[in-house]
Structures are given as C-alpha cells and as structure tokens.
C-alpha cells in the first residue's frame, strides 16, 4: 500500500509518473475521489505529476508537446518559464534552463521522449526513483516510492545510519528503503521511454578563485535575491534573530520592505550571548519587531519523543529538536507570518573545514602552515598525528574501509586531526556485537565503489557537510508546514552555495577570523557594531537538560525498542547508559533515537503475545 503524507501535515510533495499506460495504472489508486491530490498531465493526457502543492509553489509552461515545471519556493510564472525554456530541445535542457535562478525548487520537464527532474545543489530538495514492475517512478519522498516497491526497510542501511556523528558520504545519502535510489545533488535524473533510468552530471563546483571583495559582492547579491523570493515588500515575514547568519537574513528582509518579526530563543546556557546581540541587532535595524522566546517556555530537546507526529521518509535527528523548532514557528504564525527565515546552512558554507588547509597548501603554503599550527594548538592535536594526516594520500575508498577498524576508538575523547576525507565515525556502546560486525563488513563492502564528491579533500568535506546538514534541515522545515509556516533556508539555495564555493580558500580559512565572507558580504547592510560579533551559541546544555527531564521517556523507548527487534540494540546496555550517562552518552544517542523513533512511524506495533 502506498503511504502519502496526510493532509494535516501541510506538506508539499510530488510523484513523477511515466507517460505510459502502465504508469497511469500505477497512479490510478492515488487519483480516487477523496485523496485530494493535484495532477499535472503529460501532453498525451496521462498523469505526469501527482501530489500536493499550493498555487504559489508551482509554475507550469507548455511548449506544444513539452512541459516545464518549477515546484517550490520561487517567484516564477508561466511566462518566465516559456521565455527561459524556448530554445530547449529535450527534457534535460528544459530543466537546465532554470539553473541559477533565485529560490529553492525542483525543476521537472516532460517530452514525448521522456522526463527529467532535479532538485537543489545543496541537497535540500531531494529526488528519488524506484522501479515498480516495468515502470520507473520518481518522487521527492523516498517513502512514497517505497509503497510501490513493497515498503521494506533495509536493515544494513538502517544500521549504518546509527554511526555517529553520521555515516560517510554517500551512505548517509542513500535511502533506508529497499529498491529506492537517491539522485546526488549534482546530477539530474532522466527517465527516457526508450532506455533504462539514468543520472547525468548537471553541475560542477566553481573554481575557488575569487578574492574576498568579489566573492562578498556575489554572495551579497545572491542572498538578497534569495530573501526577496520569500519576503516581498509589505509582507509579514518572521526571521530567526540569533547568530550572524540569521541576523543577515533578518536585515535583508527589513531592507526589502517586509514587515519583519525577529524571533530569538533564549538558551538555558548562562554563557549564551545570542540575546544581547539580538537585542542590539533589533535596535540597530529599527524596523524589526523583536520577540524573545523565554528559555523556560520553549520546549527542551527530547520533548514529545514518545509521540512522533511527523512521518519522515528516513531516520533523522531532527526529531530531537522538533518541538522547540515547531514552537518558534507557531510564534511566527501568531504574528501572521507564512514564512520563517532561518540560517541553516550558514555554518557549513561560511565556516572553514580544517581540511581546506590542505587545499590552501597548494597555493599559499606558508599561510596554510601558520594556520595549521593555530588549529593544532586550538584543538590539541599531536604534532606527529597532524603531520601524518597532512601527508596521508589514501584514496577515498581506502579511507572508508579503514573506518571499520576503529569504531570504538573513534568515539574516544582523544583529539584527532580533522584533516582526512571526513570525521571519524563511532558506534554507541549499546549496539550489539552482531550489529558492530555488520557495520564493519558494510563499511568495507561499500568502500569498494565509494567515490568522493571531489578529488580535493577540503571541497569534499565541505560539500558532505552541506548535504548532511541539509538533510536534517529538510526534516525540521517539513514539520513547520503543519502550523502553516514555510521554513525558508536561503543559505541552501543554489546561487548562494555557488557564491560561497567560488571564494578562494586564502580568503576564508583563517582560524583567527570568524566567517569573513558573510561579514564582508553584509558590510553594506549590517551596522559595523553587529559585524564585530565572533561568537556562536552552544546548545549542549539544553540537550543535557532535556535528556534528564525526559529520562523516563528515553527509558520507555529502550524498553520497547524496535531497533532491538532488528538485532541492533542491546536494551540492557541502552538502559544502563541512560540511567548513568557519561560525557558521550547524549552525543551517541542522537542517531540511535533518530532510527528508533523513525521505525515507530513506519512499522506496525509488534503483536502482544499472551
């Protein structure tokens, strides 16, 4: 049976159906009266796109027997698509005609020869595909497709999702449903009528050659356009108002003439300086209405962990922070805002990954050496270990295969130089011995075909971080649709990502300077006093308090663990860790809870034996 998001979720989603009689037959059950689904057709009249979306999310152009659609956050109309796609000859070219436009949306095209579809370069807009008999379907949700393939969970893929902090690329990108495949962000899916489904490269990262002034100007224009897509003049818009990234969005919205409500959550951490900076920003910007959400009134992490309302299409740690995020979106809705701007993606794009120093070594060796010394001192990396990491020339596959050899040691408190292909992964102490053995085997097996996102370790790590962050942000954003608010993430728009990647590493990698690119980009908008901030809030205290407050709920999850039923978790060990946590318990617990709570939304409750 095909499970689709319920109407109450408010979610927009789509299913792509091939222009065949078989495709029409598969779609027919979803088109029955009472489903409330919308349909766009191929030129033949057969169903092409089914799902739910609002009128302002979709733009459709027809060119005789060809169709072009933009679906998501944009300001495009049919006339824009007709002009942009006028010279395209096939479905892939029709989709490519929308590249570089402001906003965040899927591009879809239909021609008599087949269909093309791609999402966003950050991975925030996903594309999946699966075969149902002789028909290939695509969608922006993996669980919808799983309904056509039998809806079975892949136990190995599920186990890999329990690696902390997250599994390496491309493992964390691959669905946990058997028979469902994910399209990488830099590729486009082609469903030709005369050939098997395939993906083709549609994008390559720009050469990082721009000086700071040029890159900052490009980022400023990209962010301004991205905010303008969501925040029109005289419209009520909410914006997070906390760190430098969200403050920049708030300022751009206010400058564009929107009626802006700035929302600041007070952290229980007494050292958190978000609030004084937010008050200063609201005063400096003048036109922003500032609302402070008291820390005692805002839900802590783990609240509602036993009552998952949202059915996500994959395990996600977003469930741990959903209650707090949703509460702030409700505040936005109370002010009449249909959009909430958030700074998600800013950290991944604007903070230099340590491995970028290896990229800098090739062009500015002395600068890179000085900065590596600073990093080694700040993070207490050993001299010998740092040198070993710098000269490490292992392939990506060899590096991934090696992860399985130290799944316990990777979780130790010993500082390791973060200069490899990715962060070391670890397993929680409550995983069963069988689960650990399966993980080692799975990592080694998948390493044989794993390819990095770039031959450059710095760029690979940066992109992998963006994709991993976008995955969690996607799920948090989905939860807010339930209260009628669209969470907008301008930093994950295509043109913003490209602007950030185009900056030369020499301009953005210094450990001494906090986010120099966004500070330079926002110099024309933000007062100098706000640009001076070089701190970021720490949310770990809130997580610790939430874990203690909802310890009974966590123990209840352990007692009735679905992961234990899959042979992955030792219930006694998990209960012991929750009752007597150490310094790493809550860190290790994130991915376990992500998988545990997700299983409860997609698998029926086990039968009670009498």
Description:
This protein folds into four domains: 7-201, Aminohydrolase, N-terminal nucleophile (Ntn) domain (Glutamine Phosphoribosylpyrophosphate, subunit 1, domain 1), CATH 3.60.20.10; 212-349 and 462-531, HUPs (Rossmann fold, 3-Layer(aba) Sandwich); 379-458, no CATH class; 546-602, no CATH class. The protein contains 25 helices and 17 strands. The model has no long low-confidence stretch (mean pLDDT 92). Helix 6 runs antiparallel to helix 17 (494-501), helix 11 packs antiparallel against helix 12 and helix 14 runs antiparallel to helix 15. With 610 residues, the protein is of the alpha+beta class. A six-stranded antiparallel sheet has the order 2-3-1-9-8-10, covered by helices on one side. The longest helix is centred in the C-terminal third of the chain and has 24 residues, at 457-480.
- Secondary structure: number of strands: 17
Major beta-sheet overview: 6 strands, antiparallel
**Overall CATH class of the largest domain:** Alpha Beta
For the record, what is the CATH homologous superfamily label of the largest domain? HUPs
Number of helices: 25
Which radius of gyration do the C-alpha atoms yield?
24 Å
Report the helical percentage. Answer: 40-55%
Beta content comes to 5-15%
**Strand order, biggest sheet?**
2-3-1-9-8-10
CA-to-CA gap between the ends? 29 Å
Weakly predicted, low-confidence segments = none
The number of domains is: 4
Kindly report the average pLDDT value: 92
CATH architecture of the largest domain: 3-Layer(aba) Sandwich
The fold-level CATH name of the largest domain is Rossmann fold
- Label the overall shape: globular
């Amino acid at each position: 049976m095909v499970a689709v998001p319920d109407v109450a979720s408010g979610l927009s989603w789509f299913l792509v159906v091939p222009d065949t009689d078989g495709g029409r037959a598969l779609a027919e059950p979803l088109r029955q009266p009472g489903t409330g689904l919308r349909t766009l057709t191929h030129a033949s009249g057969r169903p092409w796109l089914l799902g739910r979306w609002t009128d302002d999310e979709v733009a459709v152009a027809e060119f005789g027997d060809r169709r072009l659609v933009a679906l998501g956050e944009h300001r495009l109309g049919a006339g824009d698509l007709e002009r942009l796609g006028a010279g395209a000859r096939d479905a892939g070219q029709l989709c490519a005609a929308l590249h570089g436009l402001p906003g965040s949306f899927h591009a879809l095209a239909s021609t008599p020869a087949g269909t093309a579809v791609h999402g966003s370069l950050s991975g925030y807009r996903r594309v999946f595909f699966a075969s149902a008999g002789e028909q290939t379907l695509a969608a922006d949700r993996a669980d919808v497709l799983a309904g056509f393939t039998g809806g079975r969970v892949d136990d190995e893929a599920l186990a890999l999702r329990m690696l902390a902090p997250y599994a390496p690329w491309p493992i964390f990108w691959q669905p946990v449903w058997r028979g469902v495949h994910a399209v990488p962000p830099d590729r486009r899916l082609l469903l030709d009528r005369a050939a098997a489904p395939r993906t083709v490269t549609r994008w390559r990262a720009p050469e990082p050659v721009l000086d700071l002034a040029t890159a900052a100007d490009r980022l400023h224009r990209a962010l301004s356009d991205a905010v303008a897509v969501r925040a029109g003049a005289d419209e009520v818009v909410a914006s997070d108002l906390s760190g430098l990234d969200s403050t920049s969005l708030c300022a751009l919205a206010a400058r564009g003439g929107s009626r802006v409500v700035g929302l600041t959550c007070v952290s229980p951490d007494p050292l958190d300086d978000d609030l004084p900076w937010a008050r200063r920003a609201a005063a400096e910007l003048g036109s922003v209405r500032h609302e402070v959400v008291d820390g005692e009134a805002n839900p802590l992490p783990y609240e509602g962990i036993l009552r998952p309302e949202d059915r996500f299409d994959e395990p996600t740690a977003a469930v741990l922070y959903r209650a707090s995020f949703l509460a702030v979106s409700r505040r936005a809705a109370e002010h009449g805002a249909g959009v909430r701007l958030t700074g998600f993606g800013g950290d991944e794009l604007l903070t230099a990954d340590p491995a970028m120093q290896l990229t800098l070594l090739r062009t500015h060796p002395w600068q890179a050496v000085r900065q590596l010394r600073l990093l080694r001192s700040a993070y207490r990396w050993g001299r010998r270990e740092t040198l070993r990491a710098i000269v490490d020339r292992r392939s990506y596959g060899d590096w991934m295969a090696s992860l399985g050899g130290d799944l316990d040691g990777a979780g130790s408190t010993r500082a390791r130089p973060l200069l490899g292909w990715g962060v070391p992964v670890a397993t929680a102490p409550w995983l069963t011995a069988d689960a650990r053995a399966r993980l080692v085997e799975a990592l080694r097996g998948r390493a044989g075909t794993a390819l990095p996102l770039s031959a450059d370790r710095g760029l690979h790590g940066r992109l992998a971080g963006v994709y991993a962050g976008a995955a969690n942000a996607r799920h948090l954003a989905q939860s807010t649709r339930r209260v009628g608010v669209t969470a907008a993430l301008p930093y994950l728009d295509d043109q913003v990502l490209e602007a950030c990647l185009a900056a030369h590493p020499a301009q953005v990698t210094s450990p001494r300077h906090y986010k120099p690119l966004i500070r330079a980009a926002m110099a024309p908008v933000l007062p100098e006093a706000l640009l001076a901030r070089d701190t970021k809030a720490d949310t770990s205290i809130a997580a610790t308090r939430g874990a203690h407050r909802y310890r009974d709920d966590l123990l209840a999850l352990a007692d009735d663990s679905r992961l234990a039923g899959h042979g992955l978790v030792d219930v006694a060990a998990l209960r012991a860790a929750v009752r007597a946590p150490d310094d790493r318990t809550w860190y290790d617990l994130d991915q376990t809870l992500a998988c545990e709570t997700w299983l409860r939304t997609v698998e029926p409750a086990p039968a009670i034996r009498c």
